[in-house]
Design a protein that fits this description.
This protein has about 140 residues and is an alpha+beta fold. The protein has helices at about 5-15, 20-30, 40-50, 90-105, 120-130, and strands at about 20, 55-60, 65, 75-80, 85, 115. The protein has 2 domains: about 1-70, Winged helix-like DNA-binding domain superfamily/Winged helix DNA-binding domain (Arc Repressor Mutant, subunit A); about 70-135, Ferric-uptake regulator, C-terminal dimerisarion domain (Dna Ligase, domain 1), CATH 3.30.1490. The chain binds zinc ion (2 copies).
Amino acid sequence: MRTDKWLSEIEKFARKANHFRVYDLLDLMKTSGIPVSRATVYRAIKKLLSVGKIVQISNERERMFEFVNEQIHYHFKCKNCGEMFEFFSETIDNSIKEGTRKFKILLTGQNLILEGFCRSCCRRKNAKRKRNYNG
Ligand SMILES: [Zn+2]
Ligand SMILES: [Zn+2]
């Protein structure tokens, strides 16, 4: 199966999915009746990465990507349920710009993920095991 043929289709789904793993995209496409293979999705993702349409935002066993939108933003990620929260910060944007100027760096990617536990997981965790909680 040619990747090119599917690239624009996969790109459409990536845009819709916002934050996604490879299997998220596969699921989305399968439920829409598009017979695309895992290998094709992998190749398409590689291609979209290389042209800067998507960026990798997490480096876990199942990598997570997101579609690049115009506004730079940052993430909180819950280590327990995996929920991703987005936030915007001009202050952080400016600090990064300042840093790149200072070190004369050509920025090609930018992602910031803060990890922790979301509110509902905190509540559950607190109830379950308090002693494990300051690490
Ligand atoms: Zn959570
Ligand atoms: Zn995001």
